[in-house]
Structure formats: structure tokens, C-alpha cells
Specification:
single chain; 14 helices; 42% helix; alpha/beta
């Protein structure tokens, strides 16, 4: 294979070399089960405690508020299902948004079938939650508000602090899916009044198959996985020690490098956005222009099918996506793009490019130069574009 440019870092990231190095001994040397009583295994229990504390420090949380999971989807499921079960006596109403990840939306659908009422709040054309609508949706029976920190498709950052204040004022638990934001944006759970927060290792140069759920002390949600006393009796299963070491190392690394790294990503991201919008006609940027993840750019191109675009970019060695990695096999247009008001035909022509700190402006030049040619080629084959051009004349 020739040139490879990986611009799908919202789907997953390359595991950092220092993360791999930190993990390796726990596969072959320190492989003891942390629940065992002998000293060979007890060391791993201490390692887990150390990594738990390291992650807590990045959030302004306490170590005993961090619970390790298999990833963001499990954490989201746990937050919603266990809250619903534990607080059903208080009420059966949950508020979320129309642009959440499917780990939230599908869990909400599951709860609806079991007697819970879900309100899906609208967003504006930039993908920001409408706070007035959120306030109006609150009922005496509302037990949970769940709003993602930043959108995985269009990158828009939500007014999390304001939402947290609204939830606290009404005595409602607040959960945020921070899978895309954690490691990219500074987060303090007390400052933002966050009661639960989901994160995933493989989005911040850590390993796959490991994540965590922050649960504020005093939140009475129950076990999600039964069968053992691990994670302070809240999540059964032998601890994934290499994964925990991996996500802990990646979290500390992301926290230490955040300012410099995201400044570079933002500069390259803006260069990408400026070139595309100036040089490719009949396209639009999706999501807020500035209140967006440092590494995210999402475009819609009229008269172009997203799937064809991705295939032709792949032929040039450019890895991209049209939306969430979890729905890449779907032919339906993005629910996020529909929620911000795009018609189906334009939503179908979307492209998400998510960079990392290694991507340079020279790399972006290669991407945009090829993108211009590909879009022009696809439009030349489109009868809709041909009709459009004739009408313009």
C-alpha cells in the first residue's frame, strides 16, 4: 500500500507507543488475578488503584468514583439502565437529545419499552441543545438528564456547565457521554455539576475494550454486571489489568499534552475547513464553526453520495467516514444531520474528517486536492447536478 492518511480518529485512535509499553508486562509478567489473595496478584490490585486515582485526577474526581468498564457503550448503558432501575420510585421520565450516540438512543428505546418516558430535546442548526426546550421538558418525575459533552459526528460542544446547573437546580441526576471529549477538552466534574460521565480508552490513544464510568459519590445506581465483587461490588468480572494500565497511561498522557496538542489540531482543522469551504462549491460545514472538537471537521457536499466519496478517498489512501463508526454499515442518513435540519439528499453527501496531532497542513493539502477532484468527478456523473447547472445558466 502507498500513502496512508488516517483521518478517522473519532472512530478510533492509534495506541500510543508508551501506552503499549506500559501494558505489555501485565500480559506476560504481572498476570495475576487481582482478586487472588497471594502477593503475586496483590500487586495488580495496587496497580488498578493507582490508575483509578490517575484518571480521577484528570476530572477533579475521587478515585472511588471511577468504575472500569469495557468501553463507552457499556458505560452509557449502565448510566441509563441502572439509574432507571434505582430511581423508578421517584419517577420514570428521562431527558436526552436527538443527536446522542446510539449507545444512548438505543438504550433509551429499550427503557421506553419498559414503561419509561423519554423526551428527546431538539438542537439548533449548529447542533447545540436548546436550553429553553430542555428546561420546559423537566417534570416532577424527571430522574435523569443525559447529554453528550461533544458530538461524535459534527463535533459541536454542548453547554455542559449550563445543563449541569439546570439539573442540579431541579434535583435531577446529570449524565454526560464524554467519549469524544475526554482527553480533548478540560473537564471538571464539580465545576460542570456532572453526576455520571462515560469515557473510552481507544478514543485517546489507549487500547480498545476498556472504558470507565464516573459515578459521583451518593448516586445510588446499582450493579450492571452481576457475578462477583469487583469494582466495589458494582461491576462483576475479572479486571482487565492491561487495559486499565493502558487507559490510565493514555489519560495521563492526554491530560499532560492537551493544551499544546489541541492548539495544533485546531490550527490544522481550521486550515482544512477554510480550504474546503473556499475551494469546493456547494458544500457546507456541519456543526458549530468554533465551539467544536479541536480535531473534527464535518462537511456536506451537494450532488454527491457519501459512500462513493469514501471509496474514492480510500483509493487515494485517505481514511475518512460519513458519520459514526457504529453505524458505518447503515444506508440511512445520519440522525445527527437530520436533527440539525439537513434534507435527506444533502445529509447523504456528508464527510467526517477527524485528525490527530501528527497530521500536518501538507497532509491536508493532499486531502483537499484529491477531494476537489473526486467531488468534481462524482458531480459530473450526477444527472441532478447537470440539471442544477443548466438551471443556473
Amino acid at each position: 500500500m502507498g500513502k496512508l492518511l488516517y483521518l478517522d480518529n473519532a472512530a478510533t485512535t492509534k495506541t500510543a507507543p508508551e501506552v503499549v509499553e506500559a501494558m505489555l508486562p501485565y500480559f506476560t509478567e504481572h498476570y495475576g488475578n487481582p482478586s487472588s489473595v497471594y502477593s503475586f496478584a496483590a500487586g495488580n490490585k495496587e496497580v488498578i488503584s493507582k490508575e483509578r486515582e490517575a484518571i480521577a485526577n484528570t476530572l477533579g474526581a475521587k478515585a472511588n468514583e471511577i468504575y472500569f468498564t469495557a468501553g463507552g457503550s457499556e458505560s452509557d448503558n449502565w448510566a441509563l439502565k441502572a439509574t432507571a432501575e434505582a430511581y423508578a420510585d421517584k419517577g420514570k421520565h428521562i431527558i436526552t437529545t436527538k443527536i446522542e450516540h446510539h449507545a444512548i438512543l438505543h438504550t433509551a428505546e429499550y427503557l421506553e419499552k419498559r414503561g419509561f418516558e423519554i423526551t428527546y430535546v431538539d438542537v439548533d442548526e449548529d447542533g447545540k441543545v436548546k436550553l429553553d426546550e430542555l428546561k420546559k421538558a423537566i417534570r416532577p418525575t424527571t430522574i435523569l438528564i443525559s447529554v453528550m459533552f461533544a458530538n461524535n459526528e459534527i463535533g459541536t460542544i454542548q453547554p455542559i456547565k449550563e445543563i449541569g446547573e439546570i439539573a442540579k437546580e431541579h434535583g435531577i441526576l446529570f449524565h454526560t457521554d464524554a467519549v469524544q471529549a475526554y482527553g480533548q477538552l478540560p473537564i471538571n466534574v464539580d465545576e460542570y455539576h456532572i453526576d455520571m460521565l462515560s469515557a473510552s480508552g481507544h478514543k485517546l490513544n489507549g487500547p480498545k475494550g476498556i472504558g470507565f464510568l464516573y459515578i459521583r459519590k451518593g448516586v445510588k445506581i446499582r450493579s450492571f454486571v452481576h457475578g462477583g465483587a469487583q469494582e466495589r461490588k458494582r461491576r462483576a468480572g475479572t479486571e482487565n489489568v492491561p487495559g486499565i494500565v493502558g487507559i490510565g497511561t493514555a489519560a495521563v498522557r492526554a491530560d499532560k499534552t492537551m493544551k499544546e496538542r489541541t492548539a495544533k489540531e485546531t490550527e490544522v482543522r481550521d486550515y482544512l475547513i477554510d480550504r474546503v469551504l473556499k475551494e469546493i462549491p456547494y458544500c457546507r460545514l456541519n456543526g458549530h464553526r468554533t465551539d467544536r472538537l479541536p480535531n473534527n471537521a464535518n462537511f456536506s457536499f451537494r450532488f454527491v453520495e457519501g459512500e462513493s466519496l469514501l471509496i474514492m478517498l480510500d483509493m487515494k489512501g485517505i481514511c475518512a467516514s460519513s458519520g459514526s463508526a457504529c453505524t458505518s454499515g447503515s444506508l440511512d442518513p445520519s440522525h445527527v444531520l437530520l436533527a440539525i435540519g439537513l434534507p435527506h439528499e444533502i445529509a447523504h453527501g456528508s464527510l467526517r474528517l477527524t485528525i490527530n496531532e501528527e497530521i500536518t497542513k501538507e497532509d491536508i493539502d493532499y486531502v483537499v486536492d484529491n477531494l476537489k477532484e473526486i467531488v468534481a468527478h462524482l458531480r459530473n456523473m450526477s444527472p441532478l447536478y447537470e440539471d442544477f447547472v443548466k438551471k443556473q445558466k
